[in-house]
Amino acid sequence: MADVPLYVFFGRCLLGRLTPEPLSFTYEPDWLAAEGAFAISVSLPLDRGPFGEAEVRAFFFNLLPEGNVRRRLAGRLKISEGNDYALLAAVGGECAGAIAVLKAPEDAAVEGEYEPLTDEDIAQWIASGGALSSAAGVEGVRLSLAGAQDKLPVYIDPNGDIFLPKGPAASSHILKFENRDFKHLPINEALVLRLAEAVGLATVRSTIRRFDRSSALVVERYDRRRTGEVLERLHQEDLCQALNVPAELKYEGEGGPGLAAAVGLIRKHSTEPLADVHAVIRWQILNAAIGNADGHAKNLALLHMPTGTRLAPFYDLVSTRAYPRVDRHLAMHIGGNSDPDQLTNKDWSRFASDLGVGERYLRDTAKEIVSAIADALDPTVRVLEKEFGRKAFLRSALVPAVEKSVRRVTASLKP
Q1: Which end of the chain is more exposed for a tag (fewer CB within 10 A), N or C?
Q2: How many domains are contained in the chain?
Q3: Closest by alpha carbon to 402, among 284, 256, 287?
């Protein structure tokens, strides 16, 4: 693919193209002149371009899977694991947000279709080592989701039947599967999402579904909207894309964005900056209070809607503290401190200063959140046990991890 361009579409409108040598992205003149034209990223404004390698990697290659999922996908497609451009060409048809990356302009005119999937089909894909990589072997399927967890974009109809999108057909949900190294991820995320709701955060809607011996978290996509019989794509970008940061630098300790950078971006681009800054501060306090060391910039997103740009509902929330082998250090620091076990009163003071908010406001918010989590934890666990069956993991690992984190944050707030 040394000289083959890729074409970036919004629906059936060609908005730009990628070229590999040199690696660049350029908006189409017709798109720039079109009524309703929009920039696909705040880091790729319409009045600039062409964009070079750094911008292309930060936006387009951030659409691709990471880690073992990427490795299995590349192996299935017979593509070098490090060949981002070829991987994007192979799987860029259905991504996060509203754009599609296609090999040829005529691909945008193809009618999409949905192939029925049985629970047995999905269970077999899980057992074979990965659902996303297995789906990639189906003709006409070009699906990509960022992150290192095995996930599958699907369409779920009102009856609960599951379909595999092919061609330009849009997915409505994401199935997030268990991980052999980190047990019970679906129930972990289900609990933390409900705790986040209990402290007043807007989160993705989810439930748990069984596939033979495995379970999956079924997440309704916030970047899709049903209007009657039509499933519409809404454009979004994660904060690594928006801040022009490649996926390999998503952690603050590796040079990635901290919360101050996220807050600055939100203040600049959100149509409701006060509400969205308040929400992202609460999100970071929640991460510390439930023991989530994976709250990085790719787990925050801007949702670009016709009514304006807002912080997207929160997603990918888990208590990593429930897994002893996971480093406890926070992906985004609090007052320069990444160790939630060593947080001090001074760290919270510095944190308020870093974010440009009042110290009293920040402390009162943090106290409110840890109190709400402590109050909601046991009732939420009881509901999950009733809905999905009693899971020893909930009581033996997850609850103690959250309780410990709540105690540490509570202690750090004391003068």
Answers
A1: C
A2: 2
A3: 287
Average pLDDT of the segment spanning 32-59: 95
Give the residue numbers spanning the domain of 260.
235-412
pLDDT at 2: 54
The tens digit of pLDDT for each residue in 199-212 reads 999 999 999 999 98
- Alpha-carbon distance 340 to 334, whole Å? 8
Of 129, 159, 177, the position where a domain reaches its end is 177
In a domain, 42, yes or no: yes
Identify the active-site residue in 294, 327, 339, 375: 294
Tokens (6 digits) for 234: 């809404």
Domain harbouring 396, CATH code: 1.10.1070
Q: Which residues of 35-45 are buried (b: 16+ CB within 10 A; e: fewer)?
A: eeeebbbbbbe
Query: What burial letters (b/e) apply to 267-282, b meaning 16+ CB within 10 Å?
Result: eebbeebeebbbbbbb
Question: Does residue 300 register a pLDDT over 90?
Answer: yes
Angle at 60 between CA 54 and CA 66, to 5 degrees: 100
C-alpha 341/C-alpha 289 separation (Å) is 10
Does residue 40 contact residue 242 with C-beta atoms inside 8 Å? no
Cα 24 → chain centroid:
25
Whether 96 and 173 share a structural domain: yes
- The verdict on whether omega for the bond into residue 22 sits within 30 degrees of 0, i.e. cis, is yes
- Concerning whether 212 is annotated as a catalytic residue, the answer is no
Q: What percent of the chain has pLDDT over 90?
A: 83
pTM over 0.90: yes
With 0-12 CB in 10 A as exposed, 13-18 as middle and 19+ as buried, what is 352?
Answer: buried
Q: What angle in degrees, to the nearest 10, is found between the helix axes of 345-355 and 399-412?
A: 80
**Which of 269-273, 337-341, 387-391 has the least mean pLDDT?**
387-391
Element (H, E) at 318: none
